[in-house]
Write a structure and sequence with these properties.
With about 190 residues, the chain is mainly α. The protein folds into two domains: about 5-100, Rna Polymerase Sigma Factor, Chain: A (Orthogonal Bundle); about 130-180, Arc Repressor Mutant, subunit A (Orthogonal Bundle), CATH 1.10.10. It has helices spanning about 5-10, 15-40, 45-60, 60-65, 70-130, 135-145, 150-160, 160-180. Helix 1 runs parallel beside helix 3 (about 45-60). The protein starts with a helix and ends in a 6-residue tail after the last helix.
Length: about 190
């Protein structure tokens, strides 16, 4: 809030007595209000805004201040000032949290999309490499990774010993790795 708005609102106070009373409060407490707000907000512009907003609130509630001793007025002013400062902190935190959350969400979607494309590319390259492997290696790898079968299960299906399937699986993975390197894939 700018000082211009405060000056504008000052003209709507009833009579010279109210204007004089408000100016007294303004002069008496302005600097200390700024220091208190700055201690809470740690930002010069925010502290200035909160002080101005507090004065607007005080202007609207001069009847609360009129017949009180200075210490009671200061306590009231300080309460309004602290509440406005804390509210601004919360508002800034929500904005910052939302910005961080939005950015994180954006990154998650970007990363997820990148990961999906990378995975699709890798799957296409693996499928292409599998086409160039001998049938027995290809079958073992498909049963092991596509159908999630254990070495023992594959041995049963193929009618081979588990040791033989294990050796073939290692050789098939090595061969697949070599083929994928040709396609530019370092690890799979």
């Amino acid at each position: 809030m700018e000082a211009a708005e405060l000056i504008y609102r000052l003209q709507f106070l009833d009579g010279e007595q109210e204007k004089d009373f408000f100016e007294e409060i303004y002069e008496a407490y302005r600097e200390e209000m700024y220091r208190k707000a700055y201690r809470i907000l740690k930002n010069r512009h925010d502290a200035e805004d909160v002080v101005q907003e507090t004065f607007v609130t005080l202007m609207d509630n001069l009847d609360v201040l009129r017949n009180n001793p200075p210490q009671k007025n200061w306590n009231y002013i300080l309460t309004v000032l602290k509440n406005k400062s804390i509210n601004l902190c919360k508002q800034r935190k929500r904005q910052t949290d939302q910005e961080v959350e939005d950015e994180a969400l954006e990154n998650v979607f970007d990363e997820a999309l990148d990961d999906r494309f990378e995975k699709m590319e890798r799957q296409e390259l693996i499928a292409e490499a599998l086409k160039h492997m001998n049938k027995s290696y290809r079958d073992i790898l498909l049963l092991q990774y596509y159908h999630d079968m254990s070495i023992a299960e594959i041995a049963k299906v193929l009618g081979k010993s588990p040791d033989n399937v294990g050796h073939m699986s290692r050789r098939a993975k090595k061969k697949l790795g070599e083929l994928l390197k040709k396609y530019g894939v370092e690890s799979f």
